[in-house]
């Protein structure tokens, strides 16, 4: 079966039984009775259920609203690990923003042959309707979730980029609140960076990119498709946490290229919209004419420079997995440096030689739709049935440009409380990066997703995955840490141009 995966607490299975820096955590796990761990975990999940922290499972008639299972054993990043990750995340997000500025503007990266033009111009996620529009302050990717995997002590890889409407930050915040309440002894043992200032930082980011001339206190809103959306809890949670209005399309109207919110006291001008509505449904006058979720005239107001939209329309092209495969080249083109965070090796099935290799090794690879998400439209070759492999073979032959393939990685594991006791389970990680007019900020934490099924590499909540709190340990005195009461603030900041 080969070597066991790297365990982020137990390490590579050395004689001491734990990574030296995390022996106290290992001791806590050993000394806390199994029944007590389960009681605390069940208490957290009961609270989540009472608060309505659920997600929707589309296509299921029963139990369509579920909580994401929560695991009581935290995932931990050491201070030096986090410093390296933060540098790589900032570099990558800056490159994503530069890429979006370019492809909807001069298109230098296409003219210089770094990317094939048809990969952009023929891509369904490229929105020619907004080409030439410049968002306020030239910021496109305001909120990014960069999915990472780990295979060893120093081996981190980017699995995919999320620059459209990345979700999961509410789980990061609620998981931390649960851990502070249920496991206060861990915050006495470890200096953990706080994450609960995220809503304030998000609001600060939104205000920083408001159109020029809108005054000192721009009006910000969160635009949701409505309560049937799978991430509706997060939409309402963030709006409430920031102290801004949660609106649906019917609450907004565009008049003379200006967006207004309807209120009982009359219209209020809106300056910044954090949209959680996909491009297709954002404005029926520009995209899908049958959309009931969008605001007619919104893109015209955006083009006129009268409203900022977070994230900017057209960002979906940066999420495309075929574009992802070129990210090392994209990073180097815009930054002049090699990417600090490498990609997973990727085969572009649109290329004949790569397609031949993938077809010959389907039972060894992970195959993904370039525009897929949520763990759907994916083949995990080593665990797939012969019928599944053959179905993907036929799909690849019919439409190779729709797929990429990657090796099956030995994802790292973290001890997890499962039915049989504490056992290793595979994890991935989504850190959140905020970009505004004043610079780039990396939240010192993120969403750790865990595959609860033994041996599974699929961590998505819709596919049976759960979540863990993510501790970032701070080494230097004077750094803001998570307090015992859950009150505090802290961000890893990298700010360009000395503007803050």
From TrEMBL:
It holds the Pfam family CP_ATPgrasp_2. It comes from the Bacteria. Residues 74-451 form the Circularly permuted ATP-grasp type domain. It comes from Sphingomonas endophytica. This is Circularly permuted ATP-grasp type 2 domain-containing protein. Transmembrane segments: none annotated.
């Amino acid at each position: 079966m080969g070597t066991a995966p790297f365990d982020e607490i137990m390490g590579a299975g050395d004689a001491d039984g734990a990574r030296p820096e995390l022996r106290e955590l290992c001791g806590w796990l050993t000394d806390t009775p199994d029944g007590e761990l389960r009681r605390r975990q069940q208490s957290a999940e009961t609270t989540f259920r009472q608060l309505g922290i659920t997600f929707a499972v589309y296509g299921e008639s029963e139990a369509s609203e579920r909580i994401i299972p929560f695991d009581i054993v935290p995932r931990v990043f050491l201070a030096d690990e986090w410093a390296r990750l933060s540098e790589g995340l900032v570099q990558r997000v800056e490159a994503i923003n530069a890429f979006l500025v370019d492809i909807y503007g001069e298109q230098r990266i296409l003219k210089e042959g770094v990317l094939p033009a048809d990969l952009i111009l023929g891509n369904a996620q490229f929105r020619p309707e907004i080409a030439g529009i410049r968002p306020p302050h030239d910021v496109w990717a305001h909120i990014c979730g960069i999915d990472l995997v780990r295979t060893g002590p120093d081996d981190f890889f980017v699995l995919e980029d999320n620059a459209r409407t990345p979700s999961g930050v509410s789980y990061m915040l609620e998981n931390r609140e649960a851990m502070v309440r249920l496991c206060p002894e861990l915050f006495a043992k470890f200096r953990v960076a706080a994450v609960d200032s995220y809503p304030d930082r998000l609001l600060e980011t939104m205000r920083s990119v408001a159109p020029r001339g809108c005054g000192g206190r721009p009006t910000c809103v969160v635009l949701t498709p409505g309560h049937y959306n799978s991430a509706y809890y997060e939409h309402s949670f963030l709006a409430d946490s920031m102290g801004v209005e949660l609106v649906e399309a019917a609450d907004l109207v565009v008049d003379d290229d200006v967006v207004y919110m309807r209120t009982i006291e009359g219209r209020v001008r809106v300056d910044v919209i954090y949209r959680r509505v996909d491009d297709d449904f954002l404005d029926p006058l520009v995209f899908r004419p049958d959309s009931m979720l969008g605001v007619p005239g919104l893109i015209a107001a955006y083009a006129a420079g009268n409203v900022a939209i977070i994230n900017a329309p057209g960002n979906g092209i940066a999420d495309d997995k075929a574009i992802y495969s070129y990210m090392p080249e994209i990073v180097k083109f815009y930054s002049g440096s090699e990417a600090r965070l490498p990609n997973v090796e990727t085969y572009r099935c649109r290329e004949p030689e790569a397609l031949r290799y993938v077809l010959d090794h389907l039972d060894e690879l992970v195959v993904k739709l370039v525009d897929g998400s949520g763990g759907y439209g994916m083949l995990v070759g080593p665990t797939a049935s012969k019928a599944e492999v053959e179905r993907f073979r036929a799909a690849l032959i019919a439409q190779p440009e729709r797929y990429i393939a990657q090796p099956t990685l030995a994802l790292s594991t973290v001890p997890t409380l499962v039915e049989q006791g504490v056992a290793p389970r595979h994890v991935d990680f989504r850190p959140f990066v905020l970009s505004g007019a004043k610079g780039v900020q990396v939240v010192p934490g993120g969403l750790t997703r865990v595959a609860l099924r033994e041996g599974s590499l699929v961590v998505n909540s819709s596919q049976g995955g759960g979540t863990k709190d993510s501790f970032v340990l701070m080494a230097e005195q004077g750094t803001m840490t998570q307090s015992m009461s859950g009150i505090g603030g802290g961000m890893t900041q990298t700010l360009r141009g000395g503007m803050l």
